[in-house]
Amino acid sequence: MAPPPPSPSMAPPGPIHSAPGLPDTCALLQPPAAAAAASMSGPAAETPSAIQICRIMRPDDANVAGNVHGGTILKMIEEAGAIISTRHCNSQNGERCVAALARVERTDFLSPMCIGEVAHVSAGITYTSKHSVEVQVNVMSENILTGTKKLTNKATLWYVPLSLKNVDKVLEVPPVVYSRQEQEEEGRKRYEAQKLERMETKWRNGDIVQPVLNPEPNTVSYSQSSLIHLVGPSDCTLHGFVHGGVTMKLMDEVAGIVAARHCKTNIVTASVDAINFHDKIRKGCVITISGRMTFTSNKSMEIEVLVDADPVVDNSQKRYRAASAFFTYVSLSQEGKPLPVPQLVPETEDEKKRFEEGKGRYLQMKAKRQGQVEPQP
User: Fold this and answer.
1) Where are the beta strands (DSSP E) in 164-256?
2) Model confidence over 17-37: pLDDT tens digits?
3) Active-site residue, from 67, 90, 153, 252
4) Would you call 205 a catalytic residue per the annotation?
């Protein structure tokens, strides 16, 4: 167990402002004490309510077409969220903690990011419950040759504070000060909605992906893929648990393989449905990331990704489901234009059921984007 971080100045958290924009300039990622001292305006100090991290995209961040992997962007989003939520949870007197990722809401990839562009990842705290923190993140890409900037991603993440003395103990979150009462009420509604959705995903935890010999093209079995990874120190926090961003990057990699096998073209991540983290993954575990096609529309593919952890160095614990999510991919031509997607052929009753469920999610999101409400049966 690593020693706890330096104790920050004990000050009330800063107010959350109603303005949707986040800072345009890069914020130095200072330790909590330094950040609090920098904003000192009298006898009390305020913790920062937003941060920004920047990084240039390198060739190893992208696919063969030069588009940055969705998993790379998800990893940066999670890093920014972990920094600001951990800072906030340690902003008052009490037991030291680290913020662990519990859930990522639906994330849309609005525009591709390319090699050589600079990613600006801005994160701000928008709501806190007794035991969780909501963080909203925006990602901008900047072409440093032309100065052009564009919004590429918007995401909402939920974190819970885990004690440094006992990582199975969830601590209380310091409250935030809202500039408007409506902000707290809206945040509480989002909290209750995601809590309900997390409960609904648990029934799928026993589902597994089984290999099939000699599958036919365009079937679920033909494109399903798995990746086995031994969790090492570089994947983990100082406390021996896998970073949520590392897990999401591996999930996106497997989903991309499934999509490429199905289409045999260049593919990119279009969106990620809610990612639920059901349990922590410890250092030394062997994790199996499995992906399978669940639904296809004319121009998109939905892929379910499941993460199972096998604590091989601990005989007292059995294999368990650690995370699950749905990724949506699109097929692109060499010129970057959308291509028609080969239609999935579900064979078994379970595959047909998952196809109909995926179709329901697709129609619901399509209606939401058009500002419509789905009629009730």
Assistant:
1) 177-178, 225-230
2) 433 334 333 333 333 333 333
3) 252
4) no
